[in-house]
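Fold this: Secreted protein
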Amino acid sequence: MRQIRITTADGPRRRWALAAAVLPLALLVTWDGVPGAGEAGGGGGQPDGGAATAQRATARPEGIMTRQEWGADESLRSGPTTYTGAVKAVFVHHTAHDDVYDCAEVPEMLREMYGYHVGRRGWDDLGYNFLVDRCGTIYEGRAGGLERDAYGAHTEGFNSDTVGVAVLGTFDDAPPPQAVLDAIARVAAWKLRSGVDPREHTQLVSTNDDSRFGEGEAVDVEVISGHRDTSYTDCPGDALQEALPAIRAEAARLRGDGAGAEPSGPP
């Protein structure tokens, strides 16, 4: 799938606004039966009040910018938050925005994306669970994910028992800043359920036919994977995909999973 990157003469603000307008081509963000996220019916999630808090191996990272802090209009959301089971995999994305933006503009960028996902895609909320800017700041995406595991709309067929982390920018060629890699690792170390080694593999089951795998097919994936690993897309870009081993190693270090040791799972 070809990704679109737009540059104009109107400065960074105009560039990312236009990029947001072509998100269907750039992101391939879809759903797998998330209520309010493209189709009705369950995809394994539980409505508010039905999911227990997962046991965490590490504490929540400090400094996450909440929805309230970035100005999410909660009146746009429809229905209760849906929760999934304990997280056993993390999917990494890039948003295909232009790389040139001021991190002070990110709250406005998120409001634009949120409005697009709800207003144009017809979803009940922002698709990604968390987002990271090029300065390394982590942002709360889909509501409910700070205390529990919210069911997102980020990876076709694989939103159950996973979390989606999207980096604002395009990483086809330019390597992501170290601050970005560290931020993704912090989210992964926190969200992955206790006992999961970020450097190993896990098994997920596809919930629809919109990915590279048919509905009901069991798939062996790396615990920290790129969007392209299960979907027909170039996301998260070659450069960010190539950085995933470093993210896995840092997440393992943060969790105390024997940094520097060889993982026991498949190579």
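The longest strand covers residues 89-94. The longest helix spans residues 106-119.
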